[in-house]
Amino acid sequence: MLGARTGHVTVGGSRMYYNVFGRGTDHLVLIPGLGDGLRTVKGMALAMAWMFRAYAREYRVWVFSRRDVLETGTTTRDMASDLVEAMDQLGIAEARVMGVSQGGMIGQWLAIDAPERVSRLTIAVSLATQNETVQSVIRNWVRLAEDDQFGDLAVDTMHRTYTEKGLRRWRPFMWLVRLTSRPQSKERFLVQARSCLTHDALSELGRIRCPTLVIGGALDQIVGGAETQETLAAAIPDSTLHVYPDYGHAAYEEAKDFNDVVLAFFRCHAPAPVGGRGG
């Protein structure tokens, strides 16, 4: 499907997997969230080509995992530096970039430290700096992971990610999620989770020079709601804010027009006049 394949580059002495697919000539780099700490994109090319087919019609899409081996204390800024090295090796000189959740944190640093690499940036369901919500949630996930309670961690993640309507389709499978949720590397997950607890790009976001879309949900129970998105957008010059009043952290999945908003922004710098709050 759309030439989908999995590959890897070597960064910092470790493999860094990516999936690539799509018909376009312009590059689109997608940076997934903390779920990457549980499972990399290795072997997921066909599934991701289907998941992101709306983008694959127009772009050559690259979905990057973090390195397989992450040293203790690796930060979201370090992960952005790894991504630049991966892009170098793959000949991606410039790209549109969308980062989701932790991926949005990495995307911020990418646009700050390597501005020539990012033509347009979308930061989805993410944050600029710490708040009580993200500290409470991630610290609880770290505790559960340290105690090897990954089933509980997975179920808690789903309850915090989806709205009540979105949870309905998952409830019959919660027992399976609880039984099968185990990271490929516990330590790799913990490094990624702890990097979320130290992310703070707020004072440097003014250095972002590309058009930027900040998009999220007012009901977000992981990074915080509308105020979190407003703080992020206000700190970035030439940014556009789009907040869904009725969705939370899974706005990228539950809002039917999410991909349309992002694609419209990538085409002309501003989201189409659709539902939610834009401006």
Observed structural traits:
Rossmann fold; globular
Secondary-structure topology with pairs:
Elements: E1 5-11, E2 14-21, E3 27-31, H1 45-51, H2 53-56, E4 60-67, H3 76-90, E5 95-100, H4 102-113, E6 118-124, H5 132-146, H6 150-161, H7 164-167, H8 174-180, H9 186-198, E7 212-217, H10 226-234, E8 239-244, H11 251-254, H12 258-268, E9 277-278
Parallel strand pairs: 3-4, 3-5, 5-6, 6-7, 7-8
Antiparallel strand pairs: 1-2, 2-4, 8-9
Helix pairs in contact: 3-4, 5-6, 5-9, 6-8
Q: Do you know the CATH architecture?
A: 3-Layer(aba) Sandwich
CATH topology: Rossmann fold
Q: Helix proportion of residues, in percent?
A: 40-55%
Which superfamily, in CATH terms, is the homologous superfamily? Alpha/Beta hydrolase fold, catalytic domain
Major sheet: size, sense and barrel closure? 9 strands, mixed
Would you count the extended β strands for me? 9
Q: Span from first to last CA? A: 36 Å
Q: Approximately what portion of the residues adopt beta-strand conformation?
A: 15-25%
Query: How many DSSP helices?
Result: 12
How many domain regions? 1
Query: Rounded to an integer, what's the Rg over CA atoms?
Result: 17 Å
- Element pattern in H and E: EEEHHEHEHEHHHHHEHEHHE
* Class of secondary structure makeup: alpha/beta
Summed over residues and divided by their number, the pLDDT gives a mean of: 94
Show unreliable segments. Answer: 270-279
In short:
This protein is an alpha/beta fold and 279 residues long. The protein contains 12 helices and 9 strands.
